[in-house]
Write a structure and sequence with these properties.
The complex is a heterodimer of chains A (243) and B (122).
Chain A lengths: L1 E8 L17 E5 L2 E7 L5 E2 L2 H17 L3 E2 L5 E2 L2 H9 L3 H10 L3 E10 L1 H11 L1 H10 L8 H30 L5 E5 L5 E10 L3 H14 L4 E9 L12
Antiparallel strand pairs in A: 1-3, 1-5, 1-6, 2-3, 7-9, 7-10, 8-9
Chain B lengths: L12 E4 L5 H8 L14 E2 L1 H8 L5 H14 L6 H9 L4 H5 L1 H23 L1
The chains are: A alpha+beta (243), B mainly alpha (122).
């Protein structure tokens, strides 16, 4: 069986590519000006282990440094290399070439904004008198006695946190969105102010870096940013948009 | 790597050119990317477990009680500067905030370990 990692223009160099799934060397199958990055794999099922997921990702990250790459979802396996050419590259040649043109200079930058919870909760207690009162009335009261009040306090805090998250997300997006061609904001749990991916022209990555520096300084102490990229456009590729 | 990691004035910005942790990778490659026709996508064992581990679903009352407890523990007399210092040194709730991510990583590590053990026996 043959695992496919992604599709690149046939002329993309492959020098120094990291090993693929199960340590197998990564090669390519070319057809019609396209190249599929592939490696052999034994058996007919893949396990989503830590090592293999990281390998899949590493192959794609290496490729995106050299040029555009269309990332395939983990676990795309065909019978053999011949099937990669005949069943994937040839029948979908125009769509794939169109996508490679569309993403020629675009990379994904991924931003996660984690709240420093203690600091944000402190902001909430300081700015909301009703929450501060509820807090005082439940402090030092043993568990069961103030159960209903503690639930009310927690609910009020959760609401305040939601409002704050909306505000913080809006202000972060206001700074970053003008630098991006497209963006996807994801649902996240309450510890994050924002999880989003941005589709950015390679020539604007530096401006995006600066914006991230500004944001990290502006929110220092209350939000920790995790900033990944340049990545292949994982969050933005799909066949339906090929036309 | 197209862009080198830039130095930053802030301890609050972690920049990485590529995903280093499993949580990032799971976010990116398990349910994103091009999907080729279903018939050539093999079964990937372990995905169910991974998605459940990596995405946290919290029942609302438990969340409320957790918030209440966290708010009650707060020291409001603490000055902002002291709070920052504590966080920079890795103390306080900052570590707890990372709990879920680390938890997911551990789940993966265990899975990976089993895989290694299995491979070792083959």
């Amino acid at each position: 069986m043959t695992v496919v990692y992604g599709i690149v223009p046939a002329e993309t160099p492959l020098d120094g590519a990291p090993p693929g799934i199960a340590g197998a060397p990564v090669g390519r199958v070319t057809a019609g000006g396209l190249a599929a990055l592939v490696s052999p794999v034994e058996g007919d099922e893949l396990r989503a282990t830590r090592r293999d997921l990281l390998s899949h990702s590493a192959v794609l990250e290496h490729a995106v440094a050299a040029g555009p790459v269309l990332p395939l979802r983990f676990g795309t396996v065909l019978r053999d290399e011949d099937a990669v050419a005949r069943e994937l590259l040839e029948p979908r040649r125009d769509e794939l070439a169109g996508l490679l043109r569309r993403f020629e200079r675009l990379v994904e930058l991924r931003v996660k904004a984690f709240y420093v919870e203690e600091e944000v909760l402190r902001e909430i207690v300081r700015s909301d008198p009703a929450i501060a009162r509820l807090r005082e009335s439940t402090q030092g009261v043993p568990g069961e006695a103030a159960y209903a009040q503690r639930v009310r306090l927690g609910e009020a805090v959760a609401r305040a946190l939601d409002a704050r998250r909306q505000r913080d997300a809006d202000s972060i997006l206001a700074r970053l969105q003008p630098l991006a061609e497209d963006l996807v904001v994801e649902e996240a749990d309450s510890r994050l102010a924002l999880t989003a991916s941005f589709l950015v022209d390679r020539r604007r990555v530096e401006a995006f870096d600066e914006a991230m520096d500004d944001l990290a300084r502006a929110h220092e102490g209350r939000i920790t940013f995790k900033y990944l990229g340049p990545l292949p456009p994982h969050s933005f590729v799909s066949f339906s948009e090929a036309g | 790597m197209a862009v080198a990691t830039r130095g930053t004035a802030s301890n609050y910005l972690q920049r990485a050119p590529s995903p280093s942790g499993l949580v990032d990778v799971v976010d990116l490659i398990l349910d994103k990317g091009l999907v080729i026709d279903a018939y050539i996508r093999v079964s990937v064992i372990g995905i169910e477990l991974i998605t459940i581990d990596a995405r946290i679903v919290i029942a609302s009352v438990d969340t409320y009680l957790r918030f209440a407890e966290a708010v009650n523990r707060l020291d409001l007399t603490q000055t902002e500067a002291a709070g920052l210092k504590e966080l920079r040194e890795g103390g306080g709730d900052h570590d707890k905030g990372k709990g879920m991510v680390e938890g997911a990583k551990e789940a993966f590590s265990r899975d990976d370990k089993k895989e290694k053990e299995r491979a070792g026996k083959d």
